[in-house]
Amino acid sequence: MKHSFLTIALLSGMLLYGCKKDKTAVSSPDTINTRDFSYNMATKQISPDAEINGELNSPAGIKLVYYYLVRNNIPDSLVHIGTPAEESRNNYKFNIPTASFGSVKMTQASGIKMMVKHLDNTSFEAFIKVTAFTPPLPKLEETPLSLVPDANGKIKITGKASSENGLKLIEVFDDFEGTFALAGKVDLSQNEKVYQLNYEYTYRKNAGKLKVVATDNFGLKAEALISIPLKSYALYQDLSMMANGTASAPSNSSFFIGETGSILGSCNISGQEQKLDFVTYCSSTTPVFTFYSPGNTTTIAKNYKCGAVIWEPNATDLKATRFRVLIPGTAAADRIYAAYNGNTITDLNDQFFEGIAVPGSSTAKFDAAVANQAANTFNLTTAYLLWIRVPKADGSFVNQLLRPKEVVIGSTPALSTIKFDILVSK
Description:
With about 425 residues, this protein is mainly beta. The chain has 3 domains: about 110 residues, Immunoglobulins (Immunoglobulin-like); about 90 residues, Immunoglobulin-like (Sandwich); about 190 residues, no CATH class. The strands form 7 sheets. The protein has a 6-stranded mixed β-sheet. The longest helix is centred in the first third of the chain and has 23 residues. The protein is rod-shaped and about 120 Å long.
């Protein structure tokens, strides 16, 4: 019986000694060569290398390496187990796949504890410092809410991109195919912290939105949406019209039809009078280039000739178009000038002209002298926008906005010309 108790005691002692030996072998002369690492909470990436790595030298030989994530006030978590190949047991170049941290909360991480199990059952412990951080997101500011293409189909996109991490790329997308597709980009190679965007985008048919995306050096993104409203008007540029012409030199461009942007002359206006929006005329006595309402041409119709044939319209077919020259200096007029010059007009409805008296003049004449500008007198430098209101058969109206660009009074006044741009509401 005594012999049995002695055997049990010896076995227990051996087990305790074996456990004690494994624990105290922490002093095994292993050496580790590594560096401090950072973990980007936003991108879930390790830096300065793509993975936590290092080199472990062990005279005793490495059997297994356990990697535990150490966090403040949270139990250590096993995130990876390394098993060196036989030829690497004494010199082990290790790495921890970054994916090992994918499902782990890294907010309070302080490092990785390495528990090395040797071939002789001894062990070694090391620590790799890992600091988790959340980088500031990039910003994209001062981009307009909406933009419309200019006459050449160009849109100038402006804004301010910034990132404390340094900017890498600015991209512009549009939705002309229904989903956003890349339309252009600006590569930034100088690690710019701030970039003033001034990008010219070429409009693609059916695009209704733009998306601007700023990407920083961490791959973090900021974006802004810009709408491209559908224009409810047609734009006709650089149209030229002649005054009434003469019998020997009939005008081929005295009559404007806004519905199609067409211009007719004395020899082809017959039968088209119901479509006519306005007429151009220049008196011979005191040469003054003038826009006329068709309904107010009774006394001048005889001056439009196609050879010996005089224009004799049916007065009931002619529209009572009305004009108003917009005089700068009031809030409403200045708003319209700003919208026109800034290319931000999307609609020519009555609301757009709110604050402006309804056109009431049957003529609008040209006078280069700014001092003479009036509700029915325009020039090319200050009072150069004309609101034209054309009645329709159903009692409603079509609004037009005309911008004269050039007036040439000829030696023969009837051959004088005007060049202009005009917006015609659809």
